[in-house]
Amino acid sequence: MIKFTAIGKVKSKFKKPAGPEEMKNNESIIEIEAQYKDGLYKIEDYEYLQIVYYLHQTEGYDLISEWRVGPRRGVFSSRSPRRPNPIGVTTVKLLKKEDNKLFVYGLDAVDGTPVLDIKVHSELMDETSSLATDL
């Protein structure tokens, strides 16, 4: 059995999902639950964060589906929110921290979305050009 506990919720002007371009070009607030507030210590030292969240308004999924643009794709070769495990991951810009609130830019999550985890964006761990090989 897998069990997750939300550490906070998203505050957004979007009540329902909209196009990703529209949603990502807005500011949101992530409000962290009081018992996890100390986990935000020194988070403002980072410009970018990775937000892991539960896509609570998503229902069902298709393993292969029509993509918004282009050919049919498998769910694991897309960014579709309709997934076997409806979990979203987005890198956002941290604008500021006030108490237990993170003001961020670029989060494509609707109002009330449960936040499962926050990780700092690390140039060392998240940079992809170092993965190039001559295999």
What topology does this entry show?
Elements: E1 8-11, H1 20-24, E2 27-32, E3 48-54, E4 64-65, E5 73-74, E6 87-98, E7 101-105, E8 114-120, H2 123-126
Antiparallel strand pairs: 1-2, 1-8, 2-7, 3-6, 3-8, 4-5, 6-7
Please describe what this structure looks like.
- A hairpin with a 2-residue loop joins strand 6 (87-98) and strand 7.
- The protein is 7% helix and 33% strand.
- The mean pLDDT is 87.
- It is mainly beta.
- The longest helix is centred in the first third of the chain and has 5 residues, at 20-24.
- A six-stranded antiparallel barrel has the order 1-2-7-6-3-8. A two-stranded antiparallel ribbon has the order 4-5.
Task: Give the CATH H-level superfamily.
Answer: YaeB-like
Q: Which structural class is indicated by helix and strand composition?
A: mainly beta
Find the count of extended strands (DSSP E, 2+ residues).
8
| Alpha-carbon Rg, integer | 16 Å
Average per-residue pLDDT, rounded, comes to: 87
How many distinct helices?
2
* Net shape: globular
Strand order across the largest sheet: 1-2-7-6-3-8
Instruction: Quote the distance from N terminus to C terminus.
Output: 38 Å
How can the largest sheet be summarized? 6 strands, antiparallel, barrel
Q: What is the H/E string?
A: EHEEEEEEEH
Q: Domains counted in the coordinates: how many?
A: 1
CATH class: Mainly Beta
The proportion of strand residues reads 25-35%
Residue share in helix: under 10%
CATH topology label: Elongation Factor Tu (Ef-tu), domain 3
* Poorly predicted parts: none
CATH architect. name: Beta Barrel
